[in-house]
Amino acid sequence: MTPEFVVEIGRRAVETVLMLAGPMMLAALVVGLIISIFQAATQINEQTMTFIPKIVSVFLTLLFFAPWMIQTLLAFVRGIFNILPTVGG
Q1: Which three-class secondary structure state does DSSP give residue 2?
Q2: Contact 45, 39 (CB under 8 A)
Q3: What letter does residue 43 receive in the DSSP assignment?
Q4: What pLDDT does residue 81 have?
Q5: pTM of the entire structure?
Q6: Which end of the chain has fewer CB within 10 Å, C or N?
Q7: Separation CA 58–CA 52 (nearest Å)
Q8: Confidence (pLDDT) at 84
Q9: What does residue 2 show for φ and ψ, rounded to 5 degrees?
Q10: pLDDT by residue for the chain (89 residues), tens digit each?
Q11: Are the C-beta atoms of residues 88 and 1 closer than 8 Å to each other?
């Protein structure tokens, strides 16, 4: 097992995590931005007003993207398991 091999697996793992977390983070960002604009326009500065819409948007995004996320994660894990027999100790 070479250092390049380990770095490549780490790079793939980070890419997979970012791809899986991206849609939910983007949904929370968009909802947070919309609520911030609303708060600035109405001068309502309630900190707890952002939590529920963000949680709901992340949950709905998770429900919508769950099949794709599972397929992406399974493809990564299968790739790791397929590589394991070739890794010598």
Answers
A1: coil
A2: yes
A3: T
A4: 93
A5: 0.80
A6: C
A7: 10
A8: 86
A9: -95, 160
A10: 788 888 999 999 999 999 999 999 999 999 999 999 998 898 888 878 889 999 999 999 999 999 999 999 999 999 999 998 888 66
A11: yes
User: Which domain covers residue 30, as residue numbers?
Assistant: 3-86
Spatial separation of the C-alpha atoms in residues 64 and 85, rounded to whole Å: 35
The number of domains in the chain is: 1
Residue 89: the pLDDT is 61
pLDDT at 46: 81
What is the amino acid identity at position 58?
Answer: V
Q: Which of 64, 58, 54, 2 is nearest to 32 (CA)?
A: 54
Token pair for 9: 């697996």
Whole-angstrom Cα distance, residue 9 to residue 5? 6
Task: Dig out the tokens for 29 from the structure.
Answer: 């960002």
Closest CA to 20 of 60, 56, 81, 71: 71
Give the Cα separation of 39 and 31 in Å (integer): 12
> 26: Cβ–Cβ under 8 A, 6 or more apart, which residues?
61
